[in-house]
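Following up on my earlier thread - several people asked me to post the actual chain instead of describing it. Fair enough. Here it is, all 116 residues.
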Amino acid sequence: MDIITPNPIDEEPVENNFILPDTYHNHYDILKNYEELKKSNITRQRITKYELTKCLGMRAEMLAAGAPALIEVPKYVTSVETIARIEYEQKKLPFSIRRKVTGRYDFWKVSDLETL
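Reply from S.P.:
Thanks for posting it. Predicted structure:
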C-alpha cells in the first residue's frame, strides 16, 4: 500500500513507499497484502537454523496429528520429520515468519526464504 501525502509546495500528492507497522492487524490482511509487505522488509531473505528447526518441528507435529501431507509422499518414507523436510525442500511449508525489527515486524513466507 502506498501512502499518499500532500506536497506542501505543489499541493500534488507524493507517494511514500513505506508501510506503517500498524497497517495490518491479522494474518488475513498480511497474506492478502504479502507481496507489498515483502518489498518493505529490511531483514535478510534467509532462514535461520532456529526458524527452520521450529518450522520443521511444528509441521512434523501437525503431520503426526493427522494433517494431510502437501506433497506426494514416496512409499519408502514413514517418518513425519522426513516428510516435513521434503515439504520444506519443495517449498510447500504453509508457514509465515514474523521477525521483530526495531519498532515493527517483517513478514516472510517460509517458501520465499533461502537456506544457507
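The beta strands are 3-6, 13-16, 96-101, 104-109. That should answer part of your original question.
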